[in-house]
Write a structure and sequence with these properties.
It is a single chain. A six-stranded mixed sheet has the order 1-2-3-4-5-6. Strands 7-8 form a two-stranded antiparallel ribbon. It is an alpha+beta fold and about 180 residues long. About 5% of the residues have low confidence.
């Protein structure tokens, strides 16, 4: 199934369709871009081949589906995956090419994956953005992801000082981001 999307802020039409093996190179590049931006959020350096984890992702047994957003020229400008998690699903990854952010592509991908999750009879859909990625958190909240389903906490075991900064308060406890 493909979905045609033309947000008001976008010049060209967008198609959301199932991932094909011919999309591999472009999706691997998107994965590398996501890995690099996540590393930059925490002042880390990404590995030399930051797209390598994409190969492992494609072999996940809990991967229920993957879709890409392509523009009028057929180039892949975003991708989203759906992992099964019990009776629910997890969106992983959601990535839009940095040059195309702000055009509604992420929102269209989120809408598509939610429709796919409903068709599969899933009762809940979750996504776990990096705590420091405020742009992503705002986008996800606007797309309806407004319920906290779980919190993942970390302890910094690094010897060179923390990469975490003062962050937010939750249940009267202070957390670093």
């Amino acid at each position: 199934m493909t979905t045609q999307v033309t947000p008001a802020t976008q010049v060209s039409a967008l198609t959301i369709r199932a991932y094909r093996p011919t999309d591999h190179r472009e999706c691997r590049q998107l994965w590398a871009e996501l890995t690099a931006s996540d590393a930059a959020l925490y002042g880390a350096t990404s590995e030399d081949d930051s797209g390598a984890a994409f190969e492992e992702y494609l072999t996940r047994l809990d991967l229920s589906g993957m879709w890409v957003a392509s523009d009028v020229g057929g180039g892949v400008v975003g991708m989203v995956g759906l992992l099964l998690d019990g009776r629910g699903g997890e969106v992983e990854p959601l990535v839009v090419a940095s040059a195309r952010r702000g055009e509604g592509i992420g929102r269209a991908l989120l809408s598509h994956v939610a429709d796919q999750a409903r068709r599969r009879g899933l009762g809940q859909l979750s996504i776990s953005p990096a705590a420091r990625n405020l742009d992503a958190i705002r986008c996800l909240h606007a797309a309806g992801y407004d319920a906290l389903a779980r919190v993942t906490l970390a302890i910094d075991l690094g010897r060179k000082g923390s990469v975490f900064e003062d962050g937010i308060e939750l249940h009267d406890l202070r957390f670093r981001l």
